[in-house]
Design a protein that fits this description.
By secondary structure, the chain is α/β, with parallel strands linked by helices. The chain has 8 helices and 10 strands. Bound molecules: zinc ion (ZN).
Length: 285
């Protein structure tokens, strides 16, 4: 049986959506206030796994997870539909109501063909050179940001991070068609992406930014609730968090606007402890 969460009255999210103007000579950053009906909005939590092959990446996920969970709880309470998307470990959840909700959602035909592969079904959306050129950071080494000895790449994850709560009415999938079915069933036009890692999965997964934009959804990135795989020793040679900011701006320029969790929670935006850069107001964290 499908249980749908209904809120008592229609609520709206007021989001300060930031984008980057592509036209040179104009002021680069623009902010527009959008009001999204919570019942027509989903939040997709990308690849917040229990562990990662890179120790630094795993540590940052663990640090971000409680703040992300609080934000998701607030959004859910307001009527936003929550999709957990821990790629490649959905079988861990095969008997859960969240997985069944996704599997049982009726098929809905997509307006454009989903990115697919014969072997895996819905598939990765690679960097679209015509639309976005190349990413502003070099992640060709896979982006281990640890100092000294680099972490060995391995399948480190088994499930979603336990700090992210799942409740009845949430769904769980890593499949593009299932994601589209869930959204269509609920007439959801607005999709918020968060989780890790922005230069890879949050852009490229079958439920993530590139595919959702191509499907015509109103997409927004929650930019303080993400991270990148970026090694500061690689071009452009900036610190890890500046590297993340560069990718955020890339997304804002070529794919979708972004906002901070403050727009949902009313609390200060999330910031990693290791981010020692000055805050915009000049104070150190
Ligand atoms: Zn590492």
């Amino acid at each position: 049986m499908i249980t749908m969460t209904t809120s008592i009255s229609a609520e709206r999210l007021k989001l300060n959506l930031r984008s980057q103007n592509k036209e040179t000579g104009k002021s680069a950053t623009e902010t527009e206030v959008a009001k999204w009906d919570t019942e027509k909005t989903a939040i997709i939590i990308c690849d917040m796994w229990d562990d990662h092959w890179c120790k630094s990446a795993a540590r940052r996920v663990e640090e971000m997870a409680p703040a992300l969970n609080e934000t998701v709880k607030t959004a859910r309470r307001m009527g936003v539909f929550v999709i957990h998307a821990p790629s490649s470990v959905v079988d861990f959840y095969k008997d859960t109501p969240q997985r069944k909700l996704a599997r049982n959602s009726p098929f809905a035909k997509t307006p454009v063909k989903l990115s697919t592969s014969p072997r895996w079904g819905t598939a990765w959306c690679w960097t679209d050179g015509k639309r976005e050129g190349v990413l502003p950071i070099d992640d060709s080494d896979m982006g281990c940001s640890c100092k000294g000895k680099k972490c060995e790449i391995r399948e480190a994850w088994k499930r979603q991070n336990k700090l992210i709560e799942m409740v009845e009415g949430d769904a769980l999938t890593d499949n593009g068609q299932e994601t589209y079915n869930l959204l269509a069933e609920r007439k959801i036009d607005n999709v918020i992406l968060c989780g890790v890692h922005l230069n890879m999965c949050v852009l490229g997964r079958p439920f993530a930014i590139r595919q959702m934009v191509k499907l015509g959804k109103n997409v927004a990135l929650m930019r303080d609730m993400t991270d990148t795989m970026y090694n500061p020793e690689r071009p452009p040679g900036v610190d890890h968090f500046t590297g993340t900011d560069l990718v955020v701006k890339h997304v804002e320029k070529f794919w979708c606007p972004s906002f901070v969790s403050t727009d949902i929670t009313g609390k200060e935006a999330f910031r990693f402890n290791e981010d020692k850069r000055k805050k915009p107001n000049g104070r150190r964290p």
